């Protein structure tokens, strides 16, 4: 059960590849948090459909759609879990300036390695 100081609403997960999105979901659930999941079609596992209660599929370059879905789900804080292969990032270069501006404006970045 989440403690009284834990905000259990308004969380979102942008799920990419590997096992990490599943670990984040499991950890959130253990704290009483039901996350809205935005899964990347090109990377995320179809197994997410089995465990996520609120799941939306988007393509890598669909930044506006991702933001709209997060707003509709009431997401105030989001976490990205997993990895997007570099060759896939560049294949969606058409996302262009809007995506680049967003990525460079993030307050917190966690180095991947």
Structural write-up:
It is a single chain. With 113 residues, the chain is α/β, with parallel strands linked by helices. The protein has one domain (11-105): Rossmann fold, CATH 3.40.50.20. It contains 5 helices and 4 strands, in the order βαβαβαβαα. Strands 3-2-1-4 form a 4-stranded parallel sheet, sandwiched between helices. α1 (20-30) links the parallel β1 (11-15) and β2 (36-40). It is globular and about 35 Å long. The N and C termini lie far apart (32 Å). Residues 1-5 have low confidence and may be disordered.
What class, by secondary structure content? alpha/beta
Silhouette: globular
What is the third-level CATH name, the topology? Rossmann fold
Distance between the termini: 32 Å
Write the layout of secondary structure elements.
Layout: E1 11-15, H1 20-30, E2 36-40, H2 48-51, E3 54-58, H3 63-72, E4 77-81, H4 86-91, H5 96-105
Parallel strand pairs: 1-2, 1-4, 2-3
């Amino acid at each position: 059960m989440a403690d009284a100081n834990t905000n259990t609403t308004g969380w979102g997960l942008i799920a990419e590849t590997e096992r990490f999105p599943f670990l984040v979901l499991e950890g959130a659930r253990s704290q009483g948090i039901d996350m809205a999941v935005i899964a990347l079609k090109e990377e995320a596992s179809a197994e997410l459909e089995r465990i996520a209660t609120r799941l939306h599929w988007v393509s890598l370059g669909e930044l506006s759609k991702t933001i709209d879905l997060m707003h509709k789900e009431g997401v105030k804080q989001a976490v990205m879990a997993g990895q997007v292969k570099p060759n896939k990032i560049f294949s969606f270069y058409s996302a262009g300036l809007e995506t680049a501006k967003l990525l460079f404006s993030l307050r917190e970045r966690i180095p991947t390695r």
